[in-house]
Amino acid sequence: MRFTYFGHSSFAMELQGKQVVFDPFITPNPLAKKIDIHSIPADYILLSHGHGDHVADCAAIAKRTNATVVSNFEVVDWATRQGIEKTHPMNQGGKKEFEFGMLKCVNAIHSSGLPDGTNGGNPMGFVITTSEKNFYYTGDTALTMDMQLIPRWATLDFAIMCIGDNFTMGYEDAVEAAKMVQTNVVIGVHYDTFPYIQINHALVNQAFASAGITLHLPTIGETIEL
């Protein structure tokens, strides 16, 4: 299973032969200036919530690739108003079988408002189970006891977690989240993009290592095999 990092919380995964892009925020991110959004393939685009730093490049990628945008009802309504033709609305607690695997929408503690000022609905995380591997993407969230439910739905091979603090949980809470969801492999996202969320890489790596958890902090543009 291949994970390609585009910076912030934006990444792509090849799942069961389908290209799935998550939370595309690339062109407004100066750290991701080497990423060409016009070269990114996409069969599906998954949006965890409506903030601009998660949806900025959604319309451009979806219109070029004819990808299906999956998110909560309000974000999908916004996507339709951007001229995106293929969408699938979901909400917390719901699950659906897609070509890339089973997607379950789970709770995230955050806020959500769309770039045009309209209601972004409830933020979500995603648990994805496939014939290859299973994983959990937290989206933007605080540490929540709801994470203890995740192992009831899937035995995880890894989790993709926000670690930048200030707007989301920081690395200490992410370590606790990894314990709750019972994974020992974490990919960190949502850090370093803005001064508010810059991290001390050595300190963060040491915290995860001390807990016996393998932490990946890929560079922007890097692809890793999981």
From TrEMBL:
One of its GO terms (molecular function) is hydrolase activity. This is UPF0173 metal-dependent hydrolase OCK74_25140. Residues 7-190 form the Metallo-beta-lactamase domain. Coiled coil: none annotated. Keywords: Hydrolase. Belongs to the UPF0173 family. The keyword Zinc does not apply. SMART domains: Lactamase_B (SM00849). InterPro entries: Metallo-B-lactamas (IPR001279), RibonucZ/Hydroxyglut_hydro (IPR036866), UPF0173 (IPR022877), UPF0173_UPF0282_UlaG_hydrolase (IPR050114).
